[in-house]
Amino acid sequence: MKKILNNLLTFFNTENDDTFYYVRIERNDKCFCNSGKKYKACHYPDHQKKSRVAVKKISETTGEEQIKVLSVKRLRKEYYRVKSNVN
Ligand SMILES: [Zn+2]
Questions:
Q1: Of 1, 24, 39, 73, which has the highest C-beta tally within 10 A?
Q2: Percentage of the chain modeled with pLDDT above 90
Q3: Residues near 54 by Cβ (< 8 Å), separated by ≥ 6?
Q4: Is the pLDDT of residue 84 over 70?
Q5: Which residues surround ligand 1, an ion (CB under 5 A)?
Q6: Which Pfam families does the UniProt record give (predicted)?
Q7: 6 or 33, which is more confident
Q8: Degrees (nearest 5) of the Cα angle 41, 57, 9?
Q9: What are 36-50's pLDDT values in tens digits?
């Protein structure tokens, strides 16, 4: 029984590991939805209305990128994960 519990804990720990960071999608960047439009001309107004922010979630181990739309509140809580966009 204890073993199962430990396995579960390991599972949750790997889900919440610290090996990723966020890069914000800037208004002048291409939108994440592949519309070919800039973010500010595409999803940005909608996100702004809903207090949401599009970010790239980047794994530090694999470099894998995932698009996430987070609330501004959530991103503020995780500000330490946000790295500035390096061009
Ligand atoms: Zn879009």
A1: 39
A2: 72
A3: 24, 25, 31, 32, 39, 43, 44, 47, 67, 68, 69
A4: yes
A5: 31, 33, 35, 42-43
A6: SEC-C
A7: 33
A8: 145
A9: 999 999 999 999 999
Q: Distance, CA 1 to ligand 1 centroid (Å)?
A: 48
Q: How far is CA 51 from CA 10, 11, 34, 73, in A?
A: 33, 31, 22, 8
- Asked if 54 and 25 touch (Cβ cutoff 8 Å), the reply is yes
Ligand 1 centre from 6 Cα, in Å?
42
Could you tell me the distance, in angstroms and rounded to a whole number, from the CA of residue 72 to the centre of ligand 1?
18
Interval between CA 37 and ligand 1 midpoint (Å): 7
Using DSSP bridges, classify how beta strands 82-83 and 65-71 pair: parallel, antiparallel or unpaired.
Answer: unpaired
Spell out the alpha helix ranges (H) of the chain: 2-15, 44-49, 72-77
Q: Is 20 helix (H, G, I), strand (E, B) or coil?
A: strand
CB 54 within 8 A of CB 39: yes
| DSSP 3-state of 80 | helix
